[in-house]
Description:
Largest sheet: 4 strands, antiparallel
Helix content: 40-55%
Number of helices: 6
Radius of gyration: 15 Å
Structural class: alpha+beta
Strand content: 15-25%
Number of strands: 4
Amino acid sequence: xxxxxxNCSRDxxxxxxxxxxxxxxxxxxxxxxxxxxxxxxxxxxxDWSQASFDIVRWASVFLKLKGLSIPESIGYVRSHHDTxxxxxSAIAEAxxxxxxxxxxxxxxxxxxxxxxxxxSFLFHHAQSYYSFSLK
Length: 135
C-alpha cells in the first residue's frame, strides 16, 4: 500500500465536486497493489490538517488490512466507518474496489492506465509518502 500527500493544481485531478477558489489543493492518494495490478483512490485533505498532517499516523489504521482478502478488507473498512471517518473510509474502500476491478478485468485496466507516469508525477509532487506491505 502506498500513500502520497501532494499539493498540486486541480487540473491534474478530477474532484469536480470541489468548488473552492484556491488553485492549489492538498490531496491524499492511496494505491493498493496485488498480483501486478493497482487500485487508486484520492481525496482532498481537510484544510484543518494541512499544516500538521502526519501521513504515518493517518495511515496506521490501514495496517489492520494486512493479510485480509479484498472482500474481507472492504468489510473491515465498512465496519470501521464511524471510527475512521468519511474521508479515510471512502478512500480505502474506493482503492480496494478499483483493485478488485483491475484484477477481474486486467486487459481493460492495463489499456486504460498509464501507471508509471502517474507514479512519477506523484513522487515529483509529494510532500510526504508512506508505503507498507499488506501481505
